[in-house]
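During the no-cost extension, the postdoctoral fellow (Dr. R.K.) reprocessed legacy sequence entries with the updated structure-token encoder. One reprocessed record is reproduced below for audit purposes.
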Amino acid sequence: MEPVSDRHEMVAQMAPRLDPVHYCFMVVTPSTVPQALGAAIGTFREDEGVTAIVPEPLARELGEEGPAFARITLMVHSSLEGFGLTAAVASTLAEHGIACNMVAAYHHDHAFVPAADGERALALLEALSQAARR
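Re-encoded structure tokens follow.
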């Protein structure tokens, strides 16, 4: 299937899916490298260090005290050169007071929202997608 690059089509086809697992963002340290990187669903290297997105139970076991996030995967195969999907998702969630951390991967985009807001965020994104299909 070819990647979708048209903003309207990306939103219409996004088919958001809520992951039942909660995740935490954590900075990888020498003592957490094997566990964190082995379980990470995503990493990013910054000047200050490596951030890993790991399942919440492991993050807690490794001493991470930061917030937990629900992951909503946008199932549309969005083009890496497409534009507007992140803005549409983040704007919709922001209008309803929901924080959103977007992560783009090769096939899909992922919205990380506070764990307590996962179901509500999913419903909002489903409604956004449905409205784009009309």
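The chain has a mean pLDDT of 96. Residues 7-133 form a domain with the VC0802-like fold (CATH 3.30.2130.10). The remaining legacy entries will be reprocessed before the final report is submitted.
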